[in-house]
Design goal:
By secondary structure, this protein is an alpha+beta fold. It has helices at about 10-20, 20-30, 40-55, 60-75, 85-90, 90-100, 155-165, 190-210, 215-220, 235-240, and strands at about 110-115, 125-135, 140-145, 170-175, 180-185. It has a domain at about 40-195: Lambda Exonuclease, Chain A. The protein is about 45% helix and about 15% strand. The protein is globular and about 55 Å long.
Length: about 240
């Protein structure tokens, strides 16, 4: 695999570049994607259950929970993550809380909507998918599952949501749901956050212009083994590829 195989940006890859450039090199340039664990699979499952309940407002919560559980069990079928049951046990309440929060908006006009943006100066487009749009309210909402409720929108989520909203001049909101509560935050300064996302893309493209050899990018980065990004199997990959 070469750097030339990196053919588009996404909000996730741009945020990963900021959070851990070596992990970005490992996944995006070396093609060594890390296993998806129970927390991420729970997030997808809860989203599936909530989407079912929003598209069918009269569907009982139990039906929506069943959709989420089936999705989770399917995704986790071959996962070695030992936290399987711990996260499964929180799905029912998270679906209920999120539906209580979001059903007041009515049926979404779109779900999993594609957004593509290639501003002047970028060689590659930025491509992503938002969770829910209510055109009738002028609102796009991204649903985030988490263990602890943040007191404000996280920077990475702000950049992501701004990308989805600014293209259609929509308001952007983040709905965070934990096993115990659900809160929705309005995103302010959308254009500024979107410009930050563009700036990250510019830096990635400046870096990629230096070489098309992934070995070069390993030679100028070093993973932080104390970061959660490098726990579990990833730590062995750090030893193998960076020799540290």
């Amino acid at each position: 695999m070469s750097a030339n195989d990196y053919d588009h940006h996404s909000p996730h890859s741009l945020n990963l570049f900021c959070a851990s450039t070596p992990m970005w090199v490992l996944e995006k340039l070396l093609g060594l994607r890390q296993p998806i664990g129970a927390p991420a699979h729970r997030g997808v499952a809860v989203e599936n259950g909530v989407m079912h309940g929003l598209m069918k407002l009269d569907a009982p919560v139990s039906e929506c929970v069943k959709v989420a559980m089936v999705a989770y069990d399917t995704l986790m079928a071959l996962s070695p993550d030992t936290r399987r049951e711990k996260y499964r046990d929180t799905i029912e309440e998270m679906v209920r809380l999120a539906l209580d929060e979001l059903r007041r908006y009515g049926v979404p006009s779109r779900t999993q909507g594609l957004v593509q943006w290639q501003p002047k100066g970028l060689r590659l487009p930025i491509i992503g998918y938002f969770d829910f749009e209510w055109a009738q309210h002028g609102v796009i909402i991204d649903l985030k599952t988490t263990e602890k409720m943040p007191s404000q929108i996280k920077f990475s989520h702000a950049r992501q949501a701004s990308f989805y909203a600014a293209s259609d001049n929509m308001a952007a909101r983040l709905t965070y749901v934990t096993p115990k509560k659900c809160e929705t935050y309005e995103l302010e300064n959308i254009c500024e956050h979107r410009e930050a996302l563009r700036q990250i893309a510019v830096r990635i493209e400046n870096l990629l212009a230096l070489s098309d050899d992934p070995e070069f990018f390993k030679s100028i980065t070093a993973p932080d083994l104390e970061s959660f990004y490098w726990g579990g199997p990833a730590r062995q990959l750090a030893y193998e590829h960076w020799h540290i």
